[in-house]
Amino acid sequence: MSKTINRFWCKVTIPIIWELVLDQEFNWDNLRNKAFCIRTCVSCMDTQARTLLTRNGFDLSSSPSQATFDYPSFTHKFIINNFINFISIYSQQIIVENFCHYSDLMGSILELPGAPKVFKNLKNFTSMIGNDYQIFPLYESLKLICDNILDMDLFLYSYSQLQLFSKLISVQKRLENLLIDAFDYPYNRDSCDSIFWAIISQKETLKRLCLKKVYFYDFEEKSSSSIGQFTSLQELYIEDCDGLYNYLSSSSSFTQL
Questions:
Q1: Is 197 a member of any domain?
Q2: Does residue 217 sit within a domain?
Q3: What's the rounded Cα separation, in Å, for the pair 183 and 161?
Q4: Greatest distance between any 2 Cα atoms in the chain
Q5: In a domain, 193, yes or no
Q6: What is the domain count for the chain?
Q7: Is 2 a member of any domain?
Q8: SS3 of residue 194 by DSSP
Q9: Which domain holds residue 219?
Q10: How far is Cα 108 from Cα 22, in angstroms, rounded to an integer?
Q11: Out of the domains of life, which is the source (predicted)?
Q12: 208 DSSP β-pair partners
């Protein structure tokens, strides 16, 4: 009975407590306290994962013993670069020597045993990381694991990143809110084709769409009849975007706006 009660407590409380830390913009105040959630993550790792960390120079002798519940699996929302930064902070406190840079951890984090279980229930995904090729394997892995994300905030910095985000968007089953900010993106005339079709793939579930400086030159002549309707979209925000005039000019494209 007590385990049932505690599991219910975890389901309600852990998302609130952890997301207050992991879903906030990262700042450097009170870092030690913010890194404590990683200490709990370590306590939830199985023997294989803990052995892998030990072999890579982590001293886990002072970390908590195996936790009763898999606390990280109860979280649904966090900013991935915050998570990696907290790993970095906690590691610097416990590692023996030769701590690796956090960007090296980003690309391989989903290779850790048990990581897919933590990420499979992800509901909100925000990426504000620049053109760092070391984390691209992370995006590749996410599209294989996460297909039930509800909210995405994506900031584009490179064509390679755009391609990976397009794939991640396309595999979602019920994406409701999507923001794409490309103010720092170096454009060429056909670079946004894939993101356009990724957005279209979500036309039946999207409720809110925000586009900032996303250019769709190849679709300037396409009409709404050739693309289809957004049947659930209730809110549309467009800033400094080109190539959608014909589509946007048709009121039949958005039946719920």
A1: yes
A2: yes
A3: 14
A4: 64
A5: yes
A6: 1
A7: no
A8: helix
A9: 147-257
A10: 19
A11: Eukaryota
A12: 177, 235
